[in-house]
Each structure stands twice: as structure tokens, then as C-alpha cells.
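This part of the workshop introduces the protein records we will be handling. To make this concrete, we reproduce a full record directly below:
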Amino acid sequence: MKTRAAVLAGPGKPFEITELDLDGPKDGEVLIRYVAAGLCHSDLHLTDGDLVPRFPIVGGHEGAGVIEEVGTGVTKVAPGDHVVCSFIPNCGTCRYCSTGRQSICDMGATILNGDLPDGTFRFHGGGEDFGAMCMIGTFSQYATISQHSVVKVDDWLPLETAVLVGCGVPTGWGSAVYAGGVRAGDTVVVFGIGGVGINAVQGARHAGAANVVVVDPVAFKRDKALELGATHAFADADEALAKVMELTWGQGADQALVTVGVVDEEVVGAAFNVIGKGGTLVVTGLAHPEKLTIHVSGAVLTLFEKTIKGSLFGSANPQYDIPRLLRLYDQGKLDLDALVTKRYSLDQVNEGYQDLRDGKNIRGVIVHEH
């Protein structure tokens, strides 16, 4: 079949809307009709060179839609099911999945190559194979993907909103609740309030943090964080540090969560300094893999027993946490509606990303037309 998709041909280039040929599902695969796709900063890492995929590649790794067709051997879903995609596939049987760490499933090794688990591609055009970002390529009207990339969700939930639980929501929420281990009464500092950081705020609030301090240069984002559970908001890390020391009688924060769009050693240094003895620094944001972005005092790390850790997908388990977070949304305990700043058509994908760069969006969402 044919499908329209937003494609990246190489670094430094905008998305191009292209008609591609799409193969149907093979063993263990499903054909999905995407309803919505989130505009996450991680796709910008492909254009900016911070992540290096195989080009050409269909963008998009936050998606929700309806299963149209299933291949042989598919047991997880059936035609007509509503699903949210997990940008990390989860096989359920590797060392990591079988020990409750689906976020680092071995299947995730090829998500930047864009092929399916059998090593082949389903998107084609002009005589070449097109990869799919994170094996799902949500900036396409349709895609053929692995059943290990989908999670069935309640069909009464609006997919245009539920789509956020495919990446930004669990990544932020889990950075606070799982990786950070936020507990009642803690003081948490969140650096960077985008689609991930805003949900780190919601996660910290839900876990019972006494103080949720955010740092972001954009006033609109600081205001949104205060609406969704932050107790204090600052444009400057030094101001945040002074307030945290006041709030904690000089002890420092319990957790610092780095959820900025592009991580550098300055923000990591500020996050390291704001946590106190026994504090935890969680690095969730990304930078180019060859850049050394963590430079801290090893003596302070030891003497203050601080912890620095990375977190992918918020250290969450997609098969469990995606439905769980949507149930919290359904019960009014997690706000997803306020996260969507603007909706775009597929043809407006570059406009949406420019709005993200300009600090206008918490989260933009593409709503597909069929």
C-alpha cells in the first residue's frame, strides 16, 4: 500500500513529506493506522547530529493508533484494537525484560537503524529502503511494526491525547518515581520543562514531594510547571540552588532530574551541586554520544555518597506503565490534556519543530489525516 510520511534524508535537513510504499505485516508484525504522533525533541537529535541513525528514515517515535491487520503469530493484539506504541520494543524474554527492565530490552539495539527485528525494512521508495525511527516511524499515516512495539489501551481514551504516554509522560514520570525514587517529603529539582520535564514534575508531585523546584529559561514553561505541581520555578540554576538550600536548611535536594533537550556539563554540574548528601542525580536528556557531559568532583561524589545515574524511558516497563498511567489519566490523577500545546497536520511537521525550538510548546501533536 501507499502511505504519506515525513522523512529525514540526512543530518541538518528538514523533514520532507514523501509518498512511500509500505509492505504488509509478516510473522509477528502488525499494520497500524496512526491517529496521532507526538513531536518529541529526540527526533531533533537526528537533524542536529546528536544521534546518528541510518538515513533515510521515517521520523516519529511517539505514536498511537488502531491495528488494521496482523501477521501470523501475533498474539498481543487483534484488528480494531487501540494501541499506544512503545519507542523501546520489549520482547519479554531477554535478560532485561525478564528481570523487570523492559526499558533496556535487547531489541532496542537497532532503533536508530530503523529495521524490524528480522533485519529488514517495510518502508520503500525510489529503489531504496527507508528506516523507521525507533522501529515505529509514527510520522507516517500507516506503518508495519513489531507486535513488541505496541501496548493495547482502553478504546474509550482519545488517542490524540493518549499518544503522549508512548514517550514523554513515562520518561518524565519514571525519572522521578522510578529512577529518582522520589518519596513523600522529598525536595526535587527538575532542570528543563518540556514534554519530559513537565511529567517529571507530575511524577514528583504524585509521589508526595514536599518541594518541586523547576529550572527553565522560558517563562511559559515555568508557569505551566507551577500549574501542574511545581512549588517553585526559576530561570537561573543559581537562584534555584539558593532557594533549595533555604527550603532544606542547607541540606540540599534529594533528587535532581536533568530533562533538558540537550545535556551539557553545565547543567549536570548545577544538578550535582544542588543535591545533598545521599542525593540522586538522574540524567534523562541526551547529547551526542561522543561528548563527555559529566564532569564532577569525584571526592564530593564519594564523601557525600551522591549517586549519578542514567534513565531510559524513565526506567519504566512499557507493558505495565503505559496502561497504568492512562488509568491515572482516566481517574483525573494525571493531567495529559494540559500538556498538548498545539496540534498540527503532517504537512506542518517542520513548523511544529520550529515551535518546539522557539519554546512555544510543552508538547505538539500531529493528528494524521486519512
In short: The chain has a mean pLDDT of 97. The CA atoms of residues 22 and 77 lie 20 Å apart.
